[in-house]
């Protein structure tokens, strides 16, 4: 399996987006952003009351979040995705807050 990771791209306009893998939208011009990030909004399959996040198990976000230690990590979820407790491991990075 190749070493895949989240890419940070400059977004100049929402008018110039193209579909990428998994049908997600990406800037047509692939200009990488490599600076520090202040806020990262993170999706998940589920979250718990202790701000743990359940993802798809590939570790993309955990690896990405390690590269941005100063960023605020905000999970975003529907209310039904927030449970009392979900499985978590020591390498899983907690959210600073979860909005639902």
Describe how the helices and strands are arranged.
Elements lengths: L16 E3 L5 E3 L11 E4 L3 E3 L4 E2 L5 H7 L5 E5 L5 E2 L13 E3 L1
Structure description:
This protein has about 100 residues and is mostly beta strands. The protein folds into 2 domains: about 1-35, no CATH class; about 35-100, Rossmann fold, CATH 3.40.50. Helix content is about 5%, strand content about 25%. The protein has 1 helix and 8 strands, in the order E-E-E-E-E-H-E-E-E. The N and C termini lie far apart (about 35 Å).
Derived structural class: mainly beta
Uncertain segments are: none
Give the mean pLDDT. Answer: 90
**CATH-assigned homologous superfamily of the largest domain:** NagB/RpiA/CoA transferase-like
CATH topology-level fold name of the largest domain: Rossmann fold
Indicate the CATH class of the largest domain: Alpha Beta
Characteristic key phrases:
single chain, 100 residues, mainly beta, Rossmann fold, three-stranded parallel beta sheet, three-stranded mixed beta sheet, 7% helix
Describe the structure concisely for a colleague:
The chain has 100 residues and is mostly beta strands. Helix content is 7%, strand content 25%.
């Amino acid at each position: 399996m190749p070493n895949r990771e989240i890419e940070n791209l400059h977004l100049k306009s929402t008018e110039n987006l193209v579909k990428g893998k998994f049908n997600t939208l990406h800037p047509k011009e692939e200009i990488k952003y490599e600076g520090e990030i202040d806020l990262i909004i993170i999706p998940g399959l589920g979250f718990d009351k202790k701000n743990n996040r359940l993802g798809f198990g590939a570790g993309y976000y955990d690896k990405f979040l390690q590269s941005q230690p100063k960023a605020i990590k905000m999970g975003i979820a529907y209310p039904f995705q927030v449970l009392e407790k979900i499985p978590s491991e020591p390498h899983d990075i907690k959210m600073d807050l979860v909005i639902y």
